[in-house]
Amino acid sequence: MMPQAFWSWVAMDGFGVYVWSAYGFVVGGFVGFGYYIWRALQVQLKSDSSPRSPDS
Amino acid sequence: MSYPLFGFLGFEATDFSVTTLSFFASTRFLKITLLLWGIGLILALVVSPPDSQQGEGMRILYVHVPASWFALGVLTLMAGASALFLIFRMPRADILAETLAPLGTLMTCFSLTTGALWGKPMWGAFWVWDARLTSMLILLFLYGGILSLRRAFSTPFAAQQPVALLTLVAWLNVPLIKGSVHWFHTLHQPPSLLKTVGPTLHPQMLFPLLVMSFAFAASLLLLTAWRMQMIQARYKMLARTQRACGQVLWERSG
Fold this sequence. Notes:
The structure holds two protein chains of two kinds.
Chain A: H1 3-11, H2 16-49
Chain B: H1 4-9, H2 15-24, H3 27-47, H4 61-88, H5 91-123, H6 131-151, H7 160-171, H8 173-183, H9 203-245
Helix pairs in contact in B: 3-9, 4-5, 4-7, 4-9, 5-6, 5-9, 6-7, 6-8
């Protein structure tokens, strides 16, 4: 894709700011929330498998 | 005769249900999800033609419509799980409803935000108080209420029944949202796909929308499996702590 054609595609006839904002929010939201859940799962599994003293 | 789904939602998980949950939480399924997103984004942003009236701005449809579908679909699943919990006292049905609540909230946030970003270039305003938009905003508040009520109790098991009841009441908003574009004069357009005469969307736009919907569904399955595993592990830890303390700290209402 030529640079001019690329920037024309990015601009999307002036709608680019709305289209890229919408896609950025959705993809970013999935990635961010997914990472948050994955981290929570790892922390939970780690605390679940950590050795416990006989008194606990 | 065994009922895998019934066992999955009840106390005893069958081999089938455990394997299914492990598959959706696996790295292999994560790769399938990422592949679907890759194909879906190329189809939506590059391959799909612009609309004759809305131009390139129509591409927001490919994220707005699946988000709206799943915002309603997730609450419907939660209501079904809550009904199963209230009738049959299946603990995993309540865990499923607890798992899905933040995901439904996320979908509603996506729907409202992408809708606002689509509305500004098409209607000239990010927001209008029409029946469809207002009922979707109420849906977000209902999801917020369900999430807050779950945390409002001192013990996790005490929250199960009130949350299940609130979820069933909240679901009454779903038919209102679906019917809002038919019953009221709204700026929001009526449905183009879920119609008795069939979809009115051109196949060149319908196919990217279906692929993006599959990408949304796969992402939700993945996040549901991760979160469900996390919640199950947390409940097991609570039960172990209770046994170690030798006294009843939490009581299961089921």
